[in-house]
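The instructor's notes for this session suggest beginning with a concrete chain rather than abstract definitions. Hand out the sequence below and ask the class to guess, before any prediction is shown, which regions might be ordered.
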Amino acid sequence: MEEKIIEKELSYKLVGIFFEIQNELGRFCRERQYADLLEKKFIKEKLNFKREYPIEIADRKSNFIDFIIENKILIDLKAKPFIKKDDYYQMKRYLQITNLEIGLVVNFRDEYLKPRRVLNSVKNKSKKIFVDLDKKFVASDRSKGFTIVELLVSMSLFSIIVGIASGVFIQSMRAQRAVVALSAAVSNAQLTIEQMAREIRIGENFSLSGGELNFTNAKGESIIYRLGAEKIERGVNGNFGPLTAENVSVKNLGFVLSGNLPDDGRPPKITLIMQIGTKGSQVENSMINLQVSVSSRVLDG
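After discussion, reveal the predicted structure:
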């Protein structure tokens, strides 16, 4: 059965005025500012109204409603984050005292303005409801809390939201740990490069053989740098040991030798090219390319 809308034409006209006011003043003015502009609009539209209309409670005019329009509709203006049940109950009391059928509770702080129609449950005994006018949403006058179905739906939604939030948090923690591991691998690779560069600067008799760099260091030892088992290895007189740490994965290591004192008068320059990553993390397949050039300081070959 379709719900009858009380004072339909007048209600829609008022709602249009409310939208105009929010568009002009925005959402964060005081109630009095909204009421002042509303009064001007009513005068312009030639509506019969009274502002701050007194409501007699216990033979005393101790309460005032913001507006009464055409002696048919009460209007209660709000400018706060949320409309509470007390606001509905207060409007119901006003309607019962004034013996009017309908009141509008208007909260201009709402992001999307939604005037609430409150009906007089005494005059409309079969319609103890309030109606959101813009969506014709009918809700029961429930002062006893939520139904079991609503609680189940709310709990289900809460569980879904918590699950999503937990998944995002766990994923963020994993990503953070992976980034930390990659940063540690890069730092270790940089230390390895510095160690190799120091030895190369004071080395001589450089040569390349099968992707290996061969030279003689300052102590007269035969040094070889090469890639072995995803590690940079250093060989001293044929005995090899790793330079990079266990968490560092070296996928590629190359050397470029240029300059030759006897031929062109330039000291040897060695360019190291490597591709590194980290082991045992989500960024294991993420690789970083590094390139460093080092010149020998030994001028007499």
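Then share the key points. The helical segments are 8-25, 31-44, 85-98, 148-201, 261-264. The CA atoms of residues 83 and 183 lie 51 Å apart.
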